[in-house]
Amino acid sequence: MKPRILQAGRLLPSLEARLAAEFDTVLLAEQPDPAVFLAAHGGEFEGFVTSAGVGFTAATLAQLPTLRVISSFGVGLDKLDLAAAKARGIAVGYTPDVLNDCVADLAMALLLDVARRVSEADRYVRRGGWTTPGAKSFPLARKVSGAKLGIVGFGRIGQTIARRAGGFEMDIRYHTRRPVAGAAWAHEPSLLELARWCDYLVVITAGGAGTRHLVNAEVLEALGPRGYLVNVARGSVIDEAALVRALVERRIGGAGLDVFEDEPNVPRALFELDNVVLLPHIASGTEETRQAMADRVFDNLQGFLREGRMISPAPM
Ligand code: NAP
Ligand code: 8YV
Questions:
Q1: 220 CA distance to ligand 1 middle (Å)
Q2: From the candidates 234, 261, 290, 296, which is the catalytic residue?
Q3: Which atom of ligand 1 is found nearest the CA of 106?
Q4: CATH of residue 266
Q5: Ligand 1 atom with minimal separation from the 211 CA
Q6: Domain that residue 137 falls in
Q7: Are residues 31 and 179 in the same domain?
Q8: Which residues are near ligand 1 (CB < 6 Å)?
């Protein structure tokens, strides 16, 4: 008999097809009443497939008493109650590393966009700004090559960003709680000092309670009116209300944001600002990377069910 697997929400069609071919899969999100479904059938599942965006809670696990393994699509662990899984002895897999390139690429895309006013210039051309007789010429931007880059969080993705930025001959320093052994870049123990020093501050820490509002009003003040912020980590890492105030009052130069505190809701005040680039949480969103993540989700699940081991178990 095929193992029964509960799928929290929709996944890539290719992954759904693979899961359905190998397992007896049920999509929770498609049940008319997921709570009623779990109460009646929760005890039938060995595996649960979720994502970094959906995660799981202790309450969900309590409704899945026969669960042995969880496989999550994404690297973020902030919505996964790992302590609850550990207490039950449930193995959890996730998808680190395979998305480093694309998330780092997008961080650079946001940095270049906001610094060189790329989206703003595109809007200017489309609304006829360039061809309007007597109109003011498009304003000058800021230089990226050779500028000072501060990276907040220097794990798999942070270090990948640093390698990309090296190609732009940027002067790079990073902030983490502990210096990274053997890193070729300078560790800055004070986030405030890093913000004061840099031209561009890129945030790529883990999310969750430990980093909540790490970038607060004081850090934004230190970044200053000629400093730019890029966030590809989690919206929770930045005090969003303070960020909106700083942007509206032009107390920082601009921001490139892929993530927000209350996704998919983006503060309306930001829509009015030209010095802000807003993306719908797409840093890993390429065909190649999403497929690699999907493959890892499948391989973690199958590896555990067949051989009791995963390629990438979550740190618990
Ligand atoms: P990682 O390798 O675990 O790196 C996390 C980094 O955060 C480490 O350098 C860690 O250093 C640092 N950190 C943790 N708590 C900190 C704190 N309080 N202060 C300063 N630094 C802290 O993770 P990763 O693979 O690079 O991924 C990072 C995060 O990116 C994920 O957790 C996820 O939330 C986000 N992400 C977003 C997208 C997107 O679509 N936008 C895609 C993928 C990932 P210390 O522990 O030494 O402090
Ligand atoms: C995911 C992400 O695509 O991996 C992560 O942590 O934020 C993105 O890569 C998304 O969260 C999937 O739910």
A1: 20
A2: 234
A3: 41
A4: 3.40.50.720
A5: 18
A6: 100-278
A7: no
A8: 75-76, 96, 99, 103, 153-158, 175-178, 204-207, 210-211, 214, 232-234, 258-259, 281, 283-284
Please say if 175 is a catalytic residue.
no
Cβ(63)–Cβ(33) below 8 Å = no
Other CB atoms within 10 Å distance of the CB of residue 206 = 15
List Cβ<8 Å contacts ≥24 apart for 304-312: 304/47, 304/68, 304/69, 304/71, 304/91, 304/93, 305/3, 305/46, 305/47, 305/68, 305/69, 310/71, 310/91, 310/93, 311/93, 312/93, 312/94, 312/95, 312/96, 312/97
> Per residue in 277-297, pLDDT tens?
999 999 999 999 999 999 999
Active site residue 281: yes
pTM reported for the whole predicted model:
0.98
Mean pLDDT of the region 257-274: 98
Tens-digit pLDDT profile for residues 172-205: 999 999 999 999 999 999 999 999 999 999 999 9
Pocket mutation for ligand 2, best pick of 284, 288, 291, 312 (most atoms within 8 Å of C-beta): 284
261 flagged as catalytic: no
Q: Is residue 117 part of a domain?
A: yes
Residue percentage of the chain with pLDDT more than 70:
100
Q: Are 116 and 205 contained in the same domain?
A: yes
Average pLDDT over residues 307-315: 98
Judged against a pLDDT cut of 90, whether residue 135 lies above it is answered with: no
